Structure formats: C-alpha cells, structure tokens
C-alpha cells in the first residue's frame, strides 16, 4: 500500500475518526468532509455529488467503489445515492481522488474516484448498537462480530434509516416521510499462511415517497476476494462479485440489473527500483427494463447484455535520486464503442523528506449509457445510435508538504479539456443525443491541517474552478443545454476545528461556504455544523449534533420554485459497545 504522502495525485482520505466526529448518519453526508468533492442535497433522498464539475443528481463522471465493487448504473453511468448505505462504524477509510483515474479504475473515472474500504472482520469483534434520533431523520444500527483474529472472524450487521420530507421554497412538502431504507450484511475473513480470503455481502430495500406512487428499490450483492503475499514485493489478488439491483420508477420504467465481475491483479518488483502492477478483468451486466409508459418513454431494446473487458499495466520507477515516474495504460473493450485506451503519466519529485512536487497527464473516457443510446421519447429516438464516448484530457500540477509533524498542506492546479460531451442536437428528424459539446475546465484545490496542540486540530480547504462550454462547429443544439453543463459553484471553502475538552468530552465545529450556481441560480450559502460528544463510560458514547446552526434553512440544488430547502436539524446519538 502506497503512503498518501507519496501519491502523485490529488487524494484526500476520510478515516474512521473523521467519520465518527462528523456526526453524519449517511454516506453522502460523510462525503462532505472531502474538500475535493462538491456535495449538494437535492431532497431527503437525492444528492448531486461530483468532482471538478458536471454536478447533477445524475452525475456520470465520477466512479464509486465499495470494497472494489463498482456501484454505478449503466442506465445513466452514475450512482443512485438514495440506494447506497453502510454501517458507518464499519468503514476503515474513504479515499477520494479528484482527477482522472482511468488507468487503474477504468471508464467513468473521468473527474474523480470515491473508493470506500470497510474494516476487516478481525477489527469489529464484539457488539455495537447505535441509535440516532433527530428532527428530520432516525437511524437504528446493530452489529455483532465473533471469532478471533487468528481463526475466522466474522460480523453481521443491520441498519434501518428514515428521513422526513423536506419543504420546497414555497413551503410545500415533497412527501412524508420521503425515504425509508433497510439493509443488512455480513463479512468474514480467513488468514492462512500467505493467503487472505474474504467473503462479504449485503441485502437491502427501500422506498421514496413521490407522486403518483412510491419509488422503490431493492438489491443484494456477494463478493469474494483471495490475496496471496508471495514476499519480495510480489502480491496476487483475485476478486469476483455478483450484484443485483431492482428499481421501480413509477410512470417511467422498472429496471433489474445483474452484474457479474471478476478481476485479477498482480504487483511485483521485476527489477531494482520498479513497482509493476498488472491486471485484467471481465464484467457482464444483464439489464432488463419494463417500459411502464411506452407511449411516453421506453428503452429499445428493453433488455440488454453489456460486456466489458480490460487489461492494464502500470510501472513506477526511479529515474533520478528523489524522482520517480509512473507510466500506465489500460485497454478497455465495451459493448457500445469497442476499444478505448486510457493512458497516464505521472512524475513525482521529493526534493526533501516531507515535500513532494508532482505532475500528471491522463486520458479518460465516459462510455455511453443506455440512455445515451437506447431511450425513446414517445416514438422519437432521443438516444443517439451513433453516440460516442466522452473524452477528457487531464493535466495536473501539485505540491504536498508536511514541514512538521503537526502541519501539512497540499495545493493542486488542474486543467481538463473535454471533447464529445453529450448534447441534445436539433436534427431534421427531431432532437437526439449527440456529442456536440466541448469544454475547458481549470482551477485550484488547496487544503491544510494544523495540530495546534494535543487537544486542538484545525483544518481548512478552498477550491476554485471555472468551466468554458462551447459547441462543435456545424452543430445545432437545444437552447440552454450548454449552460447546464457548467452549472457548478465556482468557489467552495471549509474550516473545521476539533477540540478535546477532556479525555471523555469533545467538541467539533465546522463551517462551509458554497458559491452560487449560475444556471439554476441557487444562491450561495454558508452552513455551520456543531457536535458535542461525551464518553460516559468505556462502552457508552453520547453526542449532540446541530446542522445549519447559523441558518434555519437554505437551498443547495434544483430550479427555482421547485428546489428543496435543507433545514436546521438536531440529532442525538447514542452508541453502545459491548
């Protein structure tokens, strides 16, 4: 595993202690901790989460993984965030990469990667019960782990989450309650000499109240992984998983997706100073749609098999004292566009211990989704049969430093050139998706951390970005669609302070500023969150969290008049550890 200080990229890690002290009850709220992510709440169930632009509840340029399992939908190449949940206490860390990650992670890792890694079963032996009760949401979570670290440790968990409706700007309720979700799962690990074997799985169901009837979802997954440490820097890993998701979107479509994925990876040191990574994988997805209202919207064909094959290689090696180069290439073959090439080159210079200057150049693609190719509105094909992959060329320059044990900071400059972005083209036969938009994005990401004293920790971050969107010469696109592509806040900032009042008591205060969005004209806002925690005894922890302390409500996403307002909320949490 590479140390964060040595990574030639813009990476932020959210660890378990960060999650605990955030007071968050859901995964999207935890992701607000990452300064290189834009997180906006659209309603009680949906979030617009992105990195470096193209924010939307249907964002399609960021890849999300949970323990190596990709959780995006091929319907639109994005994530349904109301479906994703975990027992937050079981998360070891969340690695958030902003920038292209195509060589290691594949297509759709265009602007970023969210890699969620859960704790080993040996680290969760014992019982935990957590109750969250608040003004707008409630959570009940239980987990029990058994076995021993030397034997075959295991854990079981279950979680129930409910969120009340938010109100629109005009005061109207969106639904009551809006989101109900139940989930359960397990994990077991076995270590035998050089081998580590893992088996884990989850099952879930939920509903979101809406008119004319509730939106429902359900699913299950099962993942197995075998890892062998050969010694001398050589390691082999084989992973396979099955994932089923079912979704009923009233008035449009019922969708059932089965995903089968297998990947093999090997790291080695074939020569002095070289760290070589080789890998190959194959994914089969069987997507079945039932067109509920074919006169309005339908997928043609209704059922589709999607295949994805990959091979990749990456070598990191020294070229001068303190200077290392990383070269990587992934060849990926998909059902719609055939062969795609995803190269990357990174250069890192450690001028002195604790200081790293790095630069990178990468190519990433967002391959077509079923909506891009196969959706019909009434009898007109909106999906373009010739829709091609979107392409991003990403250039970055960064500096990361830890001049003292108590101080660290990082700065990243970035520039993205986008080609063949999705557009709604006006053609003689009607409107259809095309690749007529292009864009240029540039900006800066900064963050720093200062351990003022043993009991005080200060963190701050700032991100600025600008996007220029244009249309390919000779194309005619629907009015207003260009502005929607760049509808992201240009400025984001966050400051947080953690204070340990005593070994048993702690206080956390965080303030974040988010600039306005131009097209939807969502006003800029500042939100202040407060948390007080008290370890009553070794096995019992109580906390009080107040969100939006400074403001009774504010909007974060959506068109004027229809957007929801996120209210001030109060949450009381109790955690028992047995």
Automatic annotation (TrEMBL):
<dbReference type="InterPro" id="IPR012910">
    <property type="entry name" value="Plug_dom"/>
</dbReference>
<feature type="domain" description="TonB-dependent receptor-like beta-barrel">
    <location>
        <begin position="206"/>
        <end position="549"/>
    </location>
</feature>
<protein>
    <submittedName>
        <fullName>TonB-dependent receptor</fullName>
    </submittedName>
</protein>
<keyword id="KW-0675">Receptor</keyword>
<keyword id="KW-0472">Membrane</keyword>
<keyword id="KW-0813">Transport</keyword>
<dbReference type="InterPro" id="IPR039426">
    <property type="entry name" value="TonB-dep_rcpt-like"/>
</dbReference>
<dbReference type="Pfam" id="PF00593">
    <property type="entry name" value="TonB_dep_Rec_b-barrel"/>
</dbReference>
<keyword id="KW-0798">TonB box</keyword>
<dbReference type="InterPro" id="IPR037066">
    <property type="entry name" value="Plug_dom_sf"/>
</dbReference>
<feature type="domain" description="TonB-dependent receptor plug">
    <location>
        <begin position="4"/>
        <end position="113"/>
    </location>
</feature>
<dbReference type="InterPro" id="IPR000531">
    <property type="entry name" value="Beta-barrel_TonB"/>
</dbReference>
<dbReference type="InterPro" id="IPR036942">
    <property type="entry name" value="Beta-barrel_TonB_sf"/>
</dbReference>
<comment type="similarity">
    <text>Belongs to the TonB-dependent receptor family.</text>
</comment>
<dbReference type="Pfam" id="PF07715">
    <property type="entry name" value="Plug"/>
</dbReference>
<keyword id="KW-1134">Transmembrane beta strand</keyword>
<keyword id="KW-0812">Transmembrane</keyword>
<keyword id="KW-0998">Cell outer membrane</keyword>
